[in-house]
């Protein structure tokens, strides 16, 4: 999704797009690595406004993905949504090899060069930030039995349950005798 700078010089523009995940290299890489599988196209809507010395892009992005639960390994679908605001500023001269202190607005600012802005990298970044690090099919997922591997969500197994706190398991063998 791109826009020419002169198209937003006089008034705000609303851009909508529905594109496959394959258009965004970071999302394609996430699919190929097995982190998720995109079940729907990437839907995005941006309101782009030219303000003083920068361009403000306020938008939403959404996609449905298939994830593997980190507890029971079952596949489930989830909808990823993100709302964001990004400021685009015209890139100045190339930075020198010196330290520069960044202001708060620099942290949500993206430089652009030329006469158009491509929003694809920021759209992909917003979705990547929404992919859970440890996805859960549901908050109460019981996971797999550590002994036999049975899915504890479907039926309990007959394996004995031991209550050992793994953080203190090394102390279990400590006798204290000299």
What features would you describe in this structure?
By secondary structure, this protein is mainly beta. It has one domain. 13% of the residues lie in helices and 34% in strands. Helix 1 runs parallel beside helix 3.
Write a concise keyword list for the protein shown above.
mainly beta; 3 helices; two-stranded antiparallel ribbon; 178 residues
Outline of the structure:
With 178 residues, the chain is mainly β. It contains three helices and eight strands, in the order ββαββββαββα.
Question: Layout of SSEs?
Answer:
Elements: E1 2-4, E2 13-19, H1 25-32, E3 37-38, E4 42-51, E5 54-68, E6 75-90, H2 104-107, E7 109-112, E8 116-118, H3 120-130
Parallel strand pairs: 6-7
Antiparallel strand pairs: 1-8, 2-4, 3-5, 4-5, 5-6
Are there runs of 5+ residues with pLDDT below 50, and where?
none
> The biggest beta sheet, please?
6 strands, mixed
Compute the CA-based radius of gyration: 24 Å
Mean pLDDT: 85
The count of domains is 1
Note the gap between the termini.
72 Å
Please give the count of helices.
Answer: 3
Find the count of extended strands (DSSP E, 2+ residues): 8
Structural class: mainly beta
The ordered string of helix (H) and strand (E) elements is: EEHEEEEHEEH
Strand fraction equals: 25-35%
Roughly what percent helix? 10-25%
Gross morphology is elongated
């Amino acid at each position: 999704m791109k826009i020419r700078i002169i198209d937003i010089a006089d008034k705000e523009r609303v851009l909508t797009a529905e594109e496959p995940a394959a258009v965004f290299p970071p999302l394609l890489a996430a699919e190929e690595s097995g982190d998720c599988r995109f079940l729907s196209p990437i839907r995005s809507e941006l309101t782009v406004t030219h303000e003083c010395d920068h361009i403000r892009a306020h938008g939403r992005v959404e996609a449905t993905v298939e994830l593997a639960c980190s507890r029971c390994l079952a596949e489930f679908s989830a909808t990823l949504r993100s709302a964001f605001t990004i400021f685009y500023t015209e890139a100045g001269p190339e930075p020198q090899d010196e330290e520069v202190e960044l202001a708060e607005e620099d942290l949500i600012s993206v430089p652009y060069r030329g006469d158009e802005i491509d929003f694809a990298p920021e759209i992909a970044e917003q979705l990547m930030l929404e992919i859970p690090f440890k996805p859960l099919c549901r908050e109460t997922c019981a996971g797999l039995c550590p002994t036999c591997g049975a899915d504890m969500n479907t039926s309990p197994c007959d394996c004995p349950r031991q209550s050992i706190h793994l953080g203190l398991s090394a102390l279990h063998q400590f006798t204290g005798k000299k």
